[in-house]
Specification:
alpha/beta, TIM Barrel, Sulfite Reductase Hemoprotein, domain 1, 2 domains, eight-stranded parallel beta sheet, five-stranded mixed beta sheet, 12 helices, 15 strands, about 35% helix
Length: about 375
């Protein structure tokens, strides 16, 4: 079968176009430190050669900016820069990339004297002057506080934040942008994107399940969302976000290409009841990870907690301080990893910080306590 057209407007990003009837593009993100030019170039090229139409890198510091200039010189990849809490760096990185991703939930952290509208106007001007596209990247774990205050339902806050930023960009005459609305729950990803597409059918959508986790579960979660959206003509570019060691990052691209091929061939492999038991979410390894032991820890968590597979609980394993604190708040148990210690949380409550080699026994004790005390975590009945 052919994927139904999305009907969105075309947005050019370097040598490719998303929307406007163009094929769905697969993308990925480098997990190497951006300041390690050789390693980042090698990974960008590996992702491109695997079939990634877009390759994203994180930039947080002036040193990252300097490295990015050399990375641009050495790679043929269409580069996207990911700016989280450092949107003012847009002016410095724009000459070296094809798209800038900003997170509306992080704009309030800096240049507090400016309005959100002024900050978006700055980003639109920088993008226009440097022939760049923009992505408005809204995440469940970092929705702007003012939208959370206005909307009791977090899903409403997520969608309204994206709509508001579309309006801000449109009002400044800038239409070369796409939007992403991401969550670690594939069902919420489907709901958010369907609702957004109904209101803004013209805007290209970047699809992804954030913190999908380790394969194969992470691929299954992502497939569930993509099958339900792409078959309805929703989605113009995709990313499969997996927790993987650096040498295996191209597997994100091959997984995305395989999902697209299967959908076109009418092969649907998602598991309707997936996620009814223990749900382990973990962020895709990227350059913001402060200790590469994070990936191994996520794998150990999956092995350690296998005995609780039938209990309705969520465990989150996050690799950096940018997303870690907020995106573990909704998990029954959360671990967000720093350079030398792991912060263990019970929902939003910090239990304590533990060395990497000491946190697993404490995690198991907390998990056992939840299983024993929470009626909602009783085993599934079939």
């Amino acid at each position: 079968m052919q994927l139904p057209p999305s009907g969105t407007r075309p947005v050019r990003i370097g040598s490719i176009t998303i929307g406007g009837g163009a094929p769905v593009a697969v993308q990925s993100m480098c997990a190497t430190k951006t300041t390690d030019v050789d390693a980042t170039v090698a990974q960008a090229e590996a992702l491109r050669e695997a079939g990634a139409g877009l390759v994203r890198v994180a930039v947080d510091t002036e040193r990252d900016v300097m490295a990015l200039a050399e990375i641009r010189r050495q790679t043929k990849a269409n580069l996207v820069v990911d700016l989280q809490e450092n949107f003012p760096l847009a002016e410095k990185v724009a000459p070296f990339v094809d798209k800038i991703r900003y997170n509306p939930g992080h704009l309030h952290h800096v240049r507090r004297e400016e309005t959100i509208g002024q900050k978006v106007e700055f980003l639109a001007r920088v993008a226009r002057e440097n022939d760049c596209a923009l992505r408005v990247g809204v995440n469940c774990g970092s929705v702007a506080p003012d939208f959370l205050e206005r909307h009791a339902d977090p899903m409403d806050a997520l969608i309204e934040s994206a709509i508001a930023h579309c309006d801000l960009l449109d009002g400044r005459g800038f239409e070369r942008y796409c939007v992403s609305l991401k969550d670690s729950d594939p069902n919420k990803v489907v709901t958010a994107n369907r609702r957004f597409a109904a209101r803004r059918p013209d805007v290209p959508l970047h699809l992804g399940v954030t913190e999908a986790g380790l394969p194969p579960d992470g691929v299954i979660k992502t497939r569930i969302a993509f099958e339900q959206l792409l078959t309805r003509g929703i989605g113009d570019t995709i990313r499969v976000s997996l927790t993987l060691p650096n040498p295996r990052k191209p597997e994100e691209v091959s997984a995305g290409l395989q999902i697209l091929a299967d959908i076109r061939a009418g092969r649907f492999r998602s598991v309707p009841d997936f996620g009814r038991g223990l749900n382990i979410i973990s962020c895709p390894s990227c350059s913001r990870v402060e200790n590469e032991a994070f990936v191994g820890l996520a794998e150990e968590v999956k092995r350690l907690t296998a005995y609780a597979a039938e209990h309705r609980l969520t465990i989150a394993v996050m690799g950096c301080r940018v997303n870690g604190p907020g995106e573990t708040d909704d998990a029954d148990l959360g671990l967000w990893c720093g350079p030398t210690t792991v912060n263990l949380k019970r929902r939003s409550e910090l239990i304590g910080s533990f060395p990497y080699d000491a946190v697993l026994p404490r995690l198991r004790a907390e998990l056992d306590r939840l299983i024993a005390s929470e009626p909602s975590s009783s085993p599934l009945r079939v």
